[in-house]
Please model this.
Amino acid sequence: MDAPLLLAVDGNSLLHRAYHAHEESGQRTLDGQPCWAINGVWSQLLAAVNRVDPAGILVAFDDADVNQRRQSHPAYKAHRAIKHDNLIAQLASAPEQLARSGLCVVTSPGAEADDVLASAAAQAERAGWRCVVATSDRDAFALITAGTSVLRIINGGVTNSPLLTPSRLRILTGIDPEQYCEYAALRGDTSDNLPGVPGIGPKTAVRLLNAYPTVAAAMAAEATELAAVIGRSVAAKLTTPVARQTFAMNLDLMTMRTDLPLPDFDEMRIPIPPGDLLAELEEWCLAGVRDQARWLLTDPATYRTLPKALVAAAAGFEQTTLW
Model:
């Protein structure tokens, strides 16, 4: 029998995607609150539940007030445009709305959603659970193990999104999951305002990490040996103080925490507390996903034993048109 599975959802990632994809809809609640992004989060979350059949669910959000990475490196994400008021409002409302619905929602002081997801995956593996991380953020590729997969949300929604395992990640990127963070630190990340190591692009980074298990091993290699792998000019740049400093800074900022305190699995389990789930969906104009949401109120062990015809019919409920 398979180990129980935890679905760890990147709330910030899903909400940002939904906000920009459906901003033109301008959908609001009856009392005038913008809600199209929150509706998109629910749509994708429920589609992910239907796809991976979890025994538990956790939704992670950034701490909106304090970012420890930005405190230590002020340039981190400093180039990003000021958020629109409608986005700010939905980012503030979403954790509360999801929690009132009975879901386990986690925001850790000073941390980002990535850190919560990494800590959830680590906690799951320690407990003998499997984990699926649902996010559009490539940084999560570093979390992939034999027991943790990443549902990489792309255009077209959950149905068209790949479920990445160690072997599939190597096919996609050319490297193994345990190398991904170092690969990203070499390449840099313009979305986070992190420059890459001079002379090292994605292809060169893959070539380097296929020749050496770590960047430290490459930097310690003989000059002629390293030059044979990535070229004399690039090899010379890699060993400069600037390259070492850039790589170390990026690696520090990109490494996700795995030690955050999280609720017990009992608080994440499906079925969630019945509470106000259906009333919350109604209040936020989410009547279109009420049928799918009922899965959250049902013990997975129960519906796994239902006749196949009933399960197929339930899985065939029409998804909301928001996605």
In short: The chain has 16 helices and six strands. Residues 178 and 249 are 18 Å apart (CA to CA). The chain has two domains: 5-172+257-315, 175-254. The first strand starts at residue 5 and ends at 10.
